[in-house]
What does this fold into?
Amino acid sequence: MSSSQPLLTDLSLGLLLVTIVLGVYLKYFSRPLPLVHPLLLGKQSDVSQTRNHGESGIYRSWATGHGSPLSLRPANSLRTVANILDLSCPTRYIYGTFISNDLLKLRSKNIAKGLVALLGLDPSSPTESAAGGVLNLLPDSFDSLLLTLSFALSPSSFALPRLVHPTSLRLLNHVLSLPIPPKIIVLPVALLGIILEQLFEDDDSAVATGVTLVLVGEDEGEVQRAVDMAKTNGLKAFGWKEIERVGDGVEEKEDGGRVVGELEVLVEVVGQDEKGAPRHTPITHISLTAGISAILSMFPAHKRPGPNSKDSVASVLSLTEPLGLTLALGTIWSGAAFRSFGQGAAPHHDHDEEDEDEKAHDSEIAHSELLILARPSPIPLPTILFLNTPQLASLNSTLQTAANKNPLYFLARRHKLADLGDGFIDRKGLFEKFHWKSVRETALGGLTNRLRAVIVVGESPSPSLLLESHLHLSLPLTRMTYSPLSTSPIFVSHFYDLQALPPFIFHSHSEHNVSPQEFTFTPTSSSRASLATEKNTVHQEMTVAPSPGGAEGRVHTGGPSSNVEVLLKGFDGKDQEEGEEEEEGQDGGGEVWIRGPGVVCVEEGKDEKRFVNTGLHARTMKNGCFVVV
It folds into this structure.
C-alpha cells in the first residue's frame, strides 16, 4: 500500500492542476470579446457646452461632433433623386417586379413622357390642370414608387407638376378643396367609385371640371372598363399602361433644358398634426439624399445593404411617410431588393385606455402581417427587416413557442445569456447549429434564419422583450425613432448595442411591456467599462424593474442620427450652479426639437434657430442615449 500512495498523490495533484487550468481558462480566456468596445457605448452624443435656461444643450451624434458639417448625401454623385438610378446593378425584386436600375430608369422616363404627352402639359403655356399638381392615391406598390421616380426623371424640357401624396383617404376632401386642387389623380381601379362620389358631391360638378384620372390595375380589361366609366361621367381618363406605352414612343429632346435643383420640392405629403389638422410637408431632393445618408450611416460599412450580398429589405414604413420613401429610394440606390408590408410603425402613445380586446386585435394583426411576409413566393425572404414593436412581440412569441418544444432550450438559453453578458452574440457554435437554427427554421417558414439585421422603428420595446429577441434571433437589434417631419431618423441605437437599459420607468399598460417581474439585463462589459469612465451607463445586472403602473418601461433608442441636431425644450435637468461646470449628458428630459438637412417642414413651423417641434418627449442618459417617453 505504501508503494501505491505516491502514485495516487501524483494523480490527484495532476487532476487538481488540470482542473485549475481549465477553470482559469473558462473564467478569463474562453469568454468572447464584446461586439463593440464598451467605451464606445459610454459616449454616444456630443452636447454643446452652452445652453439657454429651460433648454438642454444641442445634441449631435458623437461620430459627427460639433465641429463637422452635417452630411447632405452618401456620395458626391447623388445630387438629386434622379441620380439614384445612375448606378448599374443586377436585377432584383422591387415589390413583385424583377427589374434592374437601367430598366427602372427607362420605365420611369416613359411614365414621365407619357404624362406630358397625354395630359397636354406644355412648358410654354402651363395648363390649369398642372397648377395644383398630381394627386397620388396609389397604395404602397411598385407603381407608386415608379410614379415618384418619374417626377424626378421628367424630361429636361419640362418638369412635371408637384406630386401630392396624402397619408390617408380621410384627407381626400381637404386636398380636393384646396384653392388650386390637383386636377390629375392617379388611383387604383378599386377607388374609382369613391373618387367619383367625392368629385360630384352635392351635384356640384365644378370640382370635377378639368379633372383627369389615371387608373392603375393588374387586369387591363378591368382598367379599360373603369376608364369607360369615368368617361361616361364627363371626365378625361387613361390607363396606367397606356401612359407608359405612349411615353415609350415619345423621343426625349436633348436640348439641355432646365436642370433640377437640389432644393426643389419633389413630393408634398399631406398628413395630420397632433391635433388632427391637415399638415402639408414638402420633401425636397436634398432632404431625401440627406435622409439616405443618415439611414446608411446606421449600418457598419460591411453591413450596409448592397447587391453583392444579395440583400432584400422589408419595411413596415409606408411610402407616404418621409422616412419610408427615403428608405425605399436608398435601398434602390444601394442595389438591394425592396418591399413594404404591414400597417406602419407603432406610434409613441400611452396604452392606459387600451382594453384587452384591442390588444388582442393588434397582436393578431401583427402576426398576420408576419405570416404574409413569410409566405412562399418568388420574392426572396428579407435579409434586413424594419419592423415595429407589436410585430417584434409576435415574432418573439412564435419563436418562444417553438423553442420550448426543444429539450436543449434550457442549456442553450444559459449559454446565450452568458454570451450576452459579455456583449457578444453570433450565429455560430453547437447550440446555434442544433437548437437555435432549427427553432427559427420551424417558425414562420424560416423567415428569421435569413435575417442579418433587424431594426425596430417607432415605439421601443421593453427590456425583457429586447433580451428575449436577442436570444431567439441571435442578432443585435437596432432601435430607431423617427418623425413625419424628417427624412432622417431622429435617434438610432448603435448597431452592436446589446444593452437593455431601463433607466426611467413610467406608467404604461402596453402588451409589449410584458411583466413588472421580468428581469432587466445589462452586459457585464458595461460594468467593466464604468470603471474607466464616470459617464458610462450604470451597471444593472439582473435587477427587478418595478413600476407604479405595473409595467416595465422602454429601452433607450440611442443617440441622434448622423445629420440631425436635437434640442430638448422644457428641459428639467439640473441647472448649472455658479462656479460649477456643466456636466455633459446629465439626466433630464423635455420636448424634442430637431434641426438638420433631412428636416422637412414649412418655414412657419420653425423657431428662430430653425428647430422644429416633433411632438415627442424624451429623457437623456449619462452615456448620451435617449429614452422616448
User: Anything to note?
Assistant: The chain is about 35% helix and 15% strand.
